[in-house]
Write a structure and sequence with these properties.
With 111 residues, the chain is α/β, with parallel strands linked by helices. The chain is built from five helices and five strands; from the N terminus they run αβααβββααβ. The chain has one domain. It has helices at 2-8, 23-28, 36-55, 91-94, 96-105; strands at residues 14-18, 61-62, 67-68, 84-88, 109-110.
Length: 111
């Protein structure tokens, strides 16, 4: 769906994603509110899966929290038009400046 939005929006689609910070939001969906380290580990896996699904025809991933096996989601976005992603989280909980460098090394924008 992101690839389709990317085409229809003429390359203006941006995926905004965060680790979650309100326990009541988790509880509303029947989930317990995990520690910041677990939330950020899950977030990193989700971003990895999204990027795989935007760049591979049959991506597979086996992480600690999530896994996919040959999870096709056509159409793939055009390489030059892969959706931008933005991650928002709190500095202290994601590792301060070290966390900023980790996200920058992966080509991510942190809000």
């Amino acid at each position: 769906m992101a690839a389709t939005l990317q085409v229809f929006s003429e390359n203006r689609f941006m995926l905004g994603i965060g680790a979650g910070w309100r326990g009541d939001e988790y509880e509303a969906y029947g989930s317990e509110f995990p520690s910041p380290s677990v939330r950020y580990a899950r977030l990193e896996e989700v971003v990895t899966i999204c990027r795989l699904m935007w760049t591979e025809n049959l991506p597979s991933f086996d992480g600690e929290h999530y896994s996919i096996t040959e999870a096709a989601a056509p159409p793939l976005p055009e390489v030059a038009r892969r959706p931008d992603d933005r991650m928002g989280d709190e500095r202290e909980e994601r590792g301060g400046e070290a966390g900023d460098r980790r996200h920058a090394d992966r080509g991510e924008s942190v809000l």
